[in-house]
Amino acid sequence: MSAETPAAPGQFTRRRQQFRAWRGTRPFWAGLFVMLGGLPIAYFPYANLQIGHLTLAMATTAGAGSLIIGVLLVVLGVSLWFQKHVRVFAGVAAILLALVSIPVSNLGGFLVGFLLALLGGAMAVAWAPGVPPASQPVQEGGLGKGDAPQGTGPDTTAFQPAEGTAGAYEPNDLSGTSPANGANGRHSAG
């Protein structure tokens, strides 16, 4: 087998492409950031920091509150992955929980969890599902005049009078807002 021979697509390549297709249909990165933001918010109030022989306990009186906020952020991140239709609710809830974590949970997990949850929530609110590309219908028949499709004239930018009007211009605007009839965009009431 030479270097120019293309390798047969294996199991890893196929799974990677499936994961890539799945990831592209949902707010994946928003969910990941929200989940990663929930971890330090829930962890730091219960952590013990060892500095030499000194143990620094960072337990707060609102330790349960920060645990609840962290778990809710992780659940919101998972819901962003598997239920993409709740993206606006989950994004707004993640932003609000990140803001609440500042006073409750050691500055929102020392600002790391706060910033990750805030960024993930904003990404979730801003995410919009992609529109699948529409297939273009195949035009049958030949070309009309000058490379234009059959049935159209080569110059479609100029308005031409309809057949049977002999060049007379008859406005077809029934809204009453055309500048041609003097309304100048204003409606009259009465």
UniProtKB/TrEMBL annotation:
Classification via InterPro entries: DUF6114 (IPR046096)
Transmembrane parts of this sequence: 24-44, 56-81, 88-104, 110-128
Presence of keyword Ion transport: no
Region annotation Disordered: where it falls in the sequence: 136-190
This protein's UniProt keywords: Membrane, Transmembrane, Transmembrane helix
Name of the protein: DUF6114 domain-containing protein
Annotated organism of origin: Streptomyces bullii
Organism classification: Bacteria, Bacillati, Actinomycetota, Actinomycetes, Kitasatosporales
